[in-house]
Amino acid sequence: MEFAELIKTPRADNAVLHGPRCPAVRGTLCLTGHHLIFSSRRKEGGEELWLLHANIDCVEKRFVGSLGTIVIKCKDLRIIQLDIPGMEECLNIASSIEALSTLDSITLMYPFFYRPMFEVVEDGWRSYLPEQEFELLSSVTDEWRLSCANKDFSVCPTYPPVVIIPKCIDDEALRKVAVFRYGGRFPVLSYYHKKNGMVMMRSSQPLTGTNGRRCKEDEKLINATLRPGKRGYIIDTRSLNVAQQARAKGGGFEQEVYYPQWRRIHKCIERFNILQESLIKLVEACNDQSHNMDRWLSKLEASNWLTHIKEILTAACLAAQCIDREGASVLVHGSDGTDSTLQVTSLAQIILDPRCRTIRGFEALVVREWLQAGHPFQLRCAQSAYSNTKQKWEAPVFLLFLDCVWQILRQFPCSFEFNEQFLIMLFEHAYASQFGTFLGNNENERSKLKLTQKTMSLWSWVNRSEELARFKNPLFEANSLVIWPSVAPQSLQLWEGVFLRWNRPSKFLDEAQEEVLNIINYNRELQAKVNALRRQLAELETDDRMQENLTLPVMNGVSSQAGNGLTQTSLKQLPSRSWQWEGEERRKK
Amino acid sequence: MEHITTPKVENVKLLDRYANRKTANGTLYLTATHLIYVDASSEVRKETWILHHHIASVEKLPLTTAGCPLLIHCKNFHVAHFVIGQERDCHEVYTSLLKLSQPVKPEELYAFSYNPKMSKDNREIGWKLIDLKVDYQRMGIPNDYWEITDVNKDYEVCNTYPPEIVVPRAANKATVIGSSRFRSRGRIPVLSYLYKENNAAICRCSQPLSGFSARCLEDEQMLQAIREANPGCAFMYVVDTRPKLNAMANRAAGKGYENEDNYDNIRFKFIGIENIHVMRNSLQKLLEVCETKSPSMSDFLTGLENSGWLRHIKAVMDAGVFLAKAVKDENASVLVHCSDGWDRTAQVCSLASLLLDPFYRTFKGFMVLIEKEWIAMGHKFSHRCGHLDGDPKEVSPVFTQFIECVWQLMQQFPCAFEFNERFLLEIHDHVYSCQFGNFLGTCHKEREDLKIFEKTHSLWPFLLQKKQELRNPLYKGFTAYKELQPNTLPFSFQFWCGMYNRFDKGMHPKQCVLDHLLSCMSQKMKLEDNASELENKLPFLDGPLPSEACSLSKVGSAASKTPLLNTPQDYEGEAPPVLTNGISVGNIDVMADVDQKNKENLSNHQDLPDLNATNVLDSEAKEGEPQCH
């Protein structure tokens, strides 16, 4: 096994762990192929830490005499410190962790080795198939079709094998459109608004270049979504300037002359390294322990994180507004159509479609608009906020999306079936996971890796009722309306659950959540009790009436009394005993 | 009424600050107490009420094609932008409002004309609802070290202190009088809060008249007496809440701060909270940021930073935390002052009490705290809130900052307070509304002279009446948390949108968790009534139903976790009969005595006095519900 070569010192005794917000613990450190394990030697309440190597963003080491210290910074933003006696051991462990956390080959990652300890009730790999989505769509409209033109990923390497396109476009035309769009990402259906039949499509930029190339099939494709005499909107997630500059590199944007029925709106959403730097700055600000308020606010401002949140939400609101308020169809794209485009299309759906605010609906959205749509998770989530190496492809695009969802959730706390923990869980698994769901950059890569056979899907685990209970929002009451979030700076907040998670105690906030749950559950059970009593009363009344009808008038009183007496004893015994017993148990605790 | 020349103006537009498309058209009325705007353009009748006393400023903006704009800023941060068709009308409304919003004589204040049709007896009972002596008793005072003295009964020691003050038993009259001569405005060191568990005390006073070298033996004896009243600790802190530079500058004027060499075993410390002028300007800047039309994120955060507002809030909180820690962790008594000891000192002492003692986090306790540290000890509400036409430089949001600190604590400890955000906003509204007598004038003597207690109503019974909507559904009860230890790293402080952009509803969460939970609470009451009613109909059934055995036991466990103190139906068994009879408020004292003996019981019966009082008032006070907008 090749991991053994990387682990020079598999175990260190007498190590000391300093975790965030907890006292230092002495114990034993073990390295395995995929985990860093720390267990304290305390017999009672022994603490164990299991950290996936994949979760490690960066390792720093320093020495004071022969005592070495390793600081491990994780992709989930946690920072832990390990004191390890012995210089050599410490060096060995540090270099092992470094090597194991930066494995080149995806097939060496933990999901390929992970064996679930739970029974798989539903295979998550088959939970959200495009065919099922299409079936839903065909029940409301017949203007669309499933195309298998991309079944061997030859038309567009980053699209899934089946996509939904207008019925009037044949696969031949589709291939022509693909040539005209960057990376072959021709316009496909992203969302169908049942209320008025308007749609949202997404694509990449058209390859107009400097000499204004056109593609009639492309024009035909997107015009097919317009109602007669109606205009549509193209939301370009780049500033006009950036879009114009793209022409020099062969890219570009839809020109008015060829797309007269479309109005183009530019909404600038930042990408790549700008976002990555923003995350790094934000996390640095959050970890700053200085007591200077001005410094904190100025760092928060300078990180621009909340500015990005505002920009993304604004663009998503615009797309939703075009569809719902203007009754127009929308095409969204930036340059590649794999990042800001997906942020906008997926958030617009959260705003418009109540289904996306349920747990299953949200999972379907993540699968459809992120995984199948070809957001390059492997590239974007390779490093998080502590990365030193400046690689070009990392960017917290998905984290920004989750943050935006959290902002909407905060403004509509009763409209989502899931809670904040659900979003945090997705953030963690996107960066490091025992499941195969977020591996690879697109369906093409995933199918080559044979993930469906060799790894477990995140959804197989999440959708079990035991797990779901943790992620349910007790306040949820299905809300069929479009929900318009406010994007005023006063309405947007730092997502404490992610960014301050390791920097402040959450005990009191957790207790509040628990209290909310208690209140709601108590009412539910009270309601059940009232209903049961009502039923009971109704039954007894009918019983009495029946008995009155059946028995002689003289016997009436006696028989009904006997009957009641019997019921009384049987009703009284079991439940009241178990009730008291439970009560005593509680008191003992 | 003589100020109102035009009581009614039609065709007035009300602009929405954030969405231009939503301009209302309607009629503006001026009454003796309110400006009322009735929106005729919307389908449902919509009224905007602005209390004249709430108006901070009225501006006439340059004429536009739509008419003459009138911009009104309110002390509760409501901003109303009217456009009046006729310039003449606009001018008349403008001049009327200027006069109405700045009364000259105290008798013109709303509280003297406010008539909720309540009987004289009930009005008096209302004033007796909060009795500070009871709170001192709760702390165990009088005891071996502390006594309640009436040495100030004729205001000879200090005319801005109440007649009864708490001082160390060891300090005799000569010491008190001598010390008062050495303290600015005679505000001698008196007890603010005694932490019963270790005898450490928080005391408050004004700055000493030390100049560069003056000393006062009695004042030194006074501090020694305070220190010795806490035998468990060899030293005491003396905390000057001003920035060091300000305190040093005061020495030139014959004032200043304590010299550590002259007082035995004191540890002197500066905590730099800025003065009222800095705070006033800071709020002004904050409000400008809040009012900016569609600011970018960067504009907002930079503006927030430049206003310095959260920096000041943090400074006050830090000081409160310092006091609480000194008392709890170091067993040390603390003497706090600023210049006059009625602004920063009030903030810091009340905050520390709130951190140390869960009683102050209940409805009743919070009222006691405000009555004690702010009203009785002479915070100049009248000047700080600009109740009357006066010096604008005396106005400062000192109390607002305290209220915000409490809100910040609520964010960190959502289950620790019996009341919710709306309770804070109600109090904040009424500090400015002058509808009730509590906050009129500047000190107890002045309130007596104004005959507040004979002529006006107290706010507290009215708030208790609204308890159901002002309560915190998440409150875990009196015993759930003892001392609070808030995080004071800068990221723990949030901008309070609910206060400073309170009237910009579009910015708030569109679904309110508080409303949702409050409706759950009232639903719970109905269901519980239903259940017992049904159970009564099944008289032979005194055990739970078999089918419900499992879920009922869960109900039991859930119930044991939900707060047991809040509502009458939370009492185990039947509601105590006293609730319907309504014992007199005099019983509060009795209850408080019991409280001291048995803390566990206290938590269960804590609400009794409140409920009695409200019930007594309830019967007749219904018509006179406070109007607040």
TrEMBL record, chain A:
One of its GO terms (cellular component) is cytosol. Gene3D superfamilies: Pleckstrin-homology domain (PH domain)/Phosphotyrosine-binding domain (PTB). Residues 124-499 form the Myotubularin phosphatase domain. GO terms for molecular function: protein phosphatase binding. It is found in: Cell projection, Ruffle membrane; Cytoplasm, Perinuclear region; Endoplasmic reticulum. PROSITE patterns: PPASE_MYOTUBULARIN. It holds the Pfam family PH-GRAM_MTMR6-like. It is a peripheral membrane protein. Residues 509-550 form a coiled coil. SUPFAM superfamilies: (Phosphotyrosine protein) phosphatases II (SSF52799), PH domain-like (SSF50729). It comes from the Eukaryota. Keywords: Acetylation, Cell membrane, Cell projection, Coiled coil, Cytoplasm, Endoplasmic reticulum, Membrane. GO terms for biological process: negative regulation of autophagy; phosphatidylinositol dephosphorylation. Belongs to the protein-tyrosine phosphatase family. Non-receptor class myotubularin subfamily. This is Myotubularin-related protein 9. It comes from Cairina moschata.
TrEMBL record, chain B:
GO terms for molecular function: phosphatidylinositol-3,5-bisphosphate phosphatase activity; phosphatidylinositol-3-phosphate phosphatase activity. Substrate binds at residues 275-276, 338-344. One of its GO terms (biological process) is phosphatidylinositol dephosphorylation. It comes from the Eukaryota. Transmembrane segments: none annotated. Keywords: Hydrolase, Lipid metabolism. Belongs to the protein-tyrosine phosphatase family. Non-receptor class myotubularin subfamily. This is Myotubularin related protein 8.
